[in-house]
Amino acid sequence: MPAPILYVRNLKKYYPIFGGILKRRVASVKAVDGVSLRINEGECFGLVGESGCGKTTLGKTILRILKPDGGNIFFDIPQDIIEEIISLEEKNPKSDRLKKLRKQYDAATFSGRKLLQLRRKMQIVYQDPTTSLDPRMFVKDIVAEPLIAQGIAKGEKAKNMVIEILKKVGLNESHLYRFPHEFSGGQRQRISIARALVCKPKFVVLDEPTSAVDVSVRAQLLKLFKDLQKEFNLTYLFISHDLSVVECISDRVAIMYLGKIVEVAPSSAIFKNPLHPYSQALISSVPIPDPTKRRNREPLRGEVPSPVNPPSGCRFHPRCPIAMDVCKKEQPELLEIEKDHYVACFALVRR
Amino acid sequence: MENYLIEVRDLVVRFYTYAGVVEALDRVNLKIKPGEILGLVGETGCGKSVTSLSILRLVPPPGKIEGGKILFNKDGKIIELMSLDTESMRRIRGKEVAMIFQEPRAYLNPVYTVEEQIGEVLLLHRREELLERALKTLEELGRNSSFESRIYRRMLRKPNSLITKIMAKFCSKKTLREEIHKEVVRLLKEVEIADPERVAKMYPFELSGGMAQRVVIAMALSSHPIMLIADEPTTNLDVTVQAQILHLIKQLRENYKSSILYITHDLGVVAELCDRVAVMYAGNIVEVADVYELFKNPLHPYTRGLLESIPRPDKEFKSIPGTVPNLINPPKGCRFHDRCHFAKTLCKSVKPKFIEVEKDHYVACHLYGDQ
Amino acid sequence: MKFKGRWDEFKVSMAPRIEEWKFILKRISESPLAVTGLAIIIGFVIIACLAPILAPPQGHDPFVVPQDVELAALTPNPTPPTTRHIFGTTDQQYDIYYACIWGTISAFRIGLTVVTITLVIGLILGTISAYYGGVIDEVLMRFTDIIIAFPGLVLAMALVIAFPTIMPLNVTLIAIILLFILLTASIILRLSKWILTASLLLIICIFINLYYPLILELNLSRLDKVLVSLSLVGWPSYARLIRSEVLRIKNEDFVEAAKVAGCSDLRIIVKHIWPNTIYSLLIVSTLDIGSIVLTAAALSFLGIGAEPNFADWGQIISRSRNWISRPELLVRNWHTFVIPGIFITLFVLGWNLLGDALRDVLDPMIRRR
After folding, report:
1. Taking a C-beta distance cutoff of 8 angstroms, is the pair A88, A9 a contact?
2. A243–chain B nearest CA distance, Å
3. How far is CA C256 from the centre of its chain?
4. Which of A232, A341, B244, B295 has its CA 20 to 30 A from that of B92?
5. C13 interfaces chain A, CB cutoff of 8 Å
6. What sign results for the dihedral spanned by CA atoms C324, C327, C333, C336?
């Protein structure tokens, strides 16, 4: 099996909450609580969940915008090294060899120059095109920034590379010396995309890139994403809460709830046949644009619990229609229930 | 003459900005029947929010309503909302026609609790009823002649006198507050908030998005309005919470029989919820039809474009080419013509009339009717 | 050929910024108060530029106010305006007209110098404090609090008196202190090359100091002492202002995007954070120029400002102190304090109006986005 381009293992990101007079850490928001993912090269991996589930935090932690509190991130590392690190962690976690290997291969520990090298290969496109572009910089400077910051190109050469990438996203040379506020939302998002792609990365995290734009612009942007993926052989992590968009653009999809992944499967499998009770509730909540297919189902009860004090055991058990006793005590693992279809649920394993 | 609750006729709204005059609404025609849910669909900037604000005459400056009529059918009497004075309009706002908005926490005052805010609305519109209830409670307790009772009776008789107001300041009005509390809890239960006693004492920042939206709905419904305007209330919410709120709105329509003008850009929500749909583009209503009819047989090219651009798996991404026109110098003729597949020379110069092409199915397009 | 291409490119790249300035000027021109303020300032600038022509200096130092010796022999009292002395004279017959004209240059000098220095100090400290947060923020802000705790004018007075006229500067010691600051800054900003260079230079300086201590003597005029003390006292408000602005910008998406692109901290601060935060600083500093000049005039009036006979508005007014004790003297010697007073008032008014106008214009421009 070829090594996936990104292998995230048991990633954790906690936000401490300080309280009391001495401002000690009294609790933690467990935004990402032990997430493992494999993303293959050239695929579009969808990450779905509601607000507060940790999907944006996961995306930013993978990119090392945030520093993880535990776990490994292997980006473009050969399979045998990964296996060696994993086996060392299980058998001999304090060994020097492990420290050396992690420093060199595990992106979770990178800093300084190695982090800068990583930045060149991983980029992000933000949700809100208004705040993600510096309002006082020209489009040319915004898009050229990664080139200059990483020392890839300067001056005239950088400008030519900028023009080239702007053409690919549907803008042109006349847009170089204008400010972001002179453009529409869709065009600003294209500038954002150009900035992400100018240094030719391999992996791009798309953090809800179509949520802040209109419906008609959405389709244009999605088409652009697909075309660019083919042309540059990119791998996407497409984070979104809009399931209909994810269904159309992703190859495989993972569903997150309260900091944990509950189901991972190919896109068609997960939308036609969701297995986890939360996935089923989520997918059936999406309104279908066809009045003849109206459902009169009872919607899922309750609200998403706070990530500061998540429920014990399986995070979903208080709202789950098929919860059993064991669900209150232990956390289920992601297991392959059907071919390539992983679910974390005790009730399904029993079958 | 059919029975309409609100009829908007030839509404014109302009915004006078530094950059120029924005022709936001260009002779908008809309009719809302009693007890129905009318969906108003369109993209950002097409004027749907401005239309709804105009009904309540809340258009913010530099906007001005410059033409048209808004007719409100109240118990058989037809009132022209544009001609009302401020005081009468105030009595309609919140009481007969209520409105809820997109970001609930932006419309809740952060320094007052939920109970205090809903209480404020209750006192505004249902003051007499609450005072009488308080008096009845006091009567049952045998405190008919106490100071508090006298204050309440005076507040019912002479609500505007200065002496009443001064005397009221000396009274703790405990019974009235309890009545308000009971009513608030009842309203919160009605919008399906679990543990309404606890939520009543919370501040807006403690509420989640879904709960805050329910609180705002409770505030809107507290005065039993005959019409509710909902301006994209579920756009910012998670999809499961949105499903809950839509379910709630459907139930409330059953219980209260109010009409709802539901503004959204999500066609899925429209299909789930609405009875009739009006499609808006660049300040014009381009199509109005029954919801089944609209999805099965869209007539206007813009409606067709919208329906086709809904992302579907296994299908190519289709979108409407071009962008929304700048309303400072809107195109003459049909405002959609530069993006329309079927545009003819006529479309560039003559504005299409809004006509009934099939039964109850209205379109503004030169492709239909004899124009 | 290439040059023409470059020139066209330059024009295209400058066009949007020129558009912005045109917009600012148009908005300013729409408000009569703003135009008045601008006109006043421009008027003063013209006076300052034409000073040698309007009031030709006598003697080698133009800032010494000339004394009418003939008249001085006749009477020590201030004389009202005549054709020879347009604004009259102070006691000992110093020409008020000359003092007011050259005082304009002094006023600009005081205002611009102090504001620039305080701006720079406040900018650096405030940015570092806000951007890095944590312990650095706490330490710097408490230091700022200490400075604010002193009453500004009183502290300035104390500093003016404390500074010696001839200040001995141990050059190597100063070099060591500067290098120390450079070292700390490069450690904070993680500029590894600079750390090495700074440490090397530091060691060399220390060696030199051991064998050949260099001492310079700096001649500080009294006005320079005023400038220095006002600068040392005035920076905390800028530091705090910049700190709150940087805190606001620091968490925006585009700063994070710059980090993801691989920008160093220094680049982010200089290219992203500062351009977005200077507007409020600009407004506060124009308002401040007026108040700095006023403070300096107050210090001069109290006698601890500029030297006697120095061409400075406050100094001239301070000469009128003894001559307005009784009502009839007040009326007779009105020219000794009213005329310079008008100059000060107009100057401060002009800057205040300009500052207000800038605030009105820049606020919607920022909000326009």
Report:
1. no
2. 9
3. 34
4. B244
5. yes
6. positive
Q: C276 and A134 in contact by Cβ < 8 A? A: yes
Q: Are B288 and B61 in contact (CB under 8 A)?
A: no
Residue C183's beta-bridge partner residues?
none
B44 CB neighbours in chain A (<8 A) are 185, 214
Q: Taking CA atoms, what residue in A is nearest to C11?
A: A177
Q: In one letter, which amino acid is C333? A: N
Rounded-to-integer distance, Cα B43 and Cα B279, Å: 10
Are A83 and A6 contacting, i.e. CB atoms less than 8 angstroms apart?
Answer: no
At which residue do the structure tokens 């204050």 appear?
B151
pLDDT digits (tens, 9 = 90+) for C210-222: 777 777 777 777 7
Pairing of strands B259-264, A70-75: unpaired
What's chain B's Rg over C-alpha atoms?
A: 24
Q: Is C248 in the A-facing interface, judged by CB distances under 8 Å?
A: no
Separation in Å, CA C363 to CA B96, C24, C359: 39, 11, 6
> Distance (Å) from the C-alpha of residue A134 to the closest C-alpha of chain C?
6
Q: B6-96+227-279 in CATH: which number? A: 3.40.50.300
pTM of the model: 0.82
3-state helix, strand, coil in chain C (%, to 5): 80, 5, 15
Share of chain C above pLDDT 90, in %: 19
Tell me whether A65 touches chain C (CB under 8 Å): yes
Closest residue by Cα to residue A336 from A259, A269, A243: A269
- In which residue are the tokens 């992601």 written? A334
How is residue B345 written in tokens?
């020379």
* ipTM for the whole predicted complex goes beyond 0.85: no
Whether C254 sits inside 8 A of A179 (CB atoms) is no
Q: Which of C15, C257, C264 lies nearest to residue A132, judging by beta carbons?
A: C257
pLDDT, residue B291, reads 92
Q: 């520093």: which residue's tokens?
A: A67
Question: With contact defined as beta carbons under 8 Å apart, do C95 and C101 qualify?
Answer: no
Q: What are B181-186's contacts with CB under 8 Å, separation 24+?
A: B181/B115, B181/B119, B183/B122, B183/B130, B183/B222, B184/B114, B184/B115, B184/B118, B184/B119, B184/B122, B184/B218
Angle of helix C134-149 relative to helix C222-250, nearest 10 degrees?
140
C54 Cα distance to chain centroid: 25
Can you state the angle between helices C152-162 and C274-302, rounded to 10 degrees? Answer: 70
> Domain segments of chain B: what residues?
6-96+227-279, 110-224, 333-350+361-371
Residue B358 token pair:
């099939």
In the three-class reduction of DSSP (H, G, I as helix; E, B as strand; rest coil), residue B298 is classed as coil
Q: What would the two tokens of residue A284 be? A: 């059936």
C-alpha closest to that of A168 among A136, A143, A137? A143
Nearest CB neighbour to A123, from listed C13, C16, C260? C260
3-state secondary structure of A316: coil
The reply to whether A268 touches chain C by the CB within 8 Å rule is no
Give the span between the Cα atoms of B282 and B327, in whole angstroms.
Answer: 7
Q: Is the dihedral of CA C227, C232, C237, C238 positive or negative?
A: positive
Q: Where are the alpha helices (DSSP H) in chain B?
A: 48-55, 86-92, 114-125, 127-140, 147-157, 162-169, 174-190, 196-200, 209-221, 239-256, 267-273, 291-296, 301-308, 345-349
Give B-chain residues touching A282 at CB under 8 angstroms: 239-240
Q: What is the pLDDT of residues C217-271, one digit of tens each?
A: 777 777 888 888 889 888 999 999 999 999 988 988 899 899 888 888 888 888 8
- The pair of structure tokens assigned to A199 is 């240094």
Asked if C250 contacts C205 with a C-beta cutoff of 8 angstroms, the reply is: no
- With beta carbons less than 8 A apart as the criterion, state whether A255 and A49 touch: yes
Give the integer Cα–Cα distance in Å for B370 and A53: 56
Evaluate if residue A128 carries a pLDDT over 60: yes
Partner residue opposite B43 with nearest CB, options A216, A245, A282: A216
Please list every residue in chain A whose beta carbon sits closer than 8 Å to the beta carbon of residue B339.
none
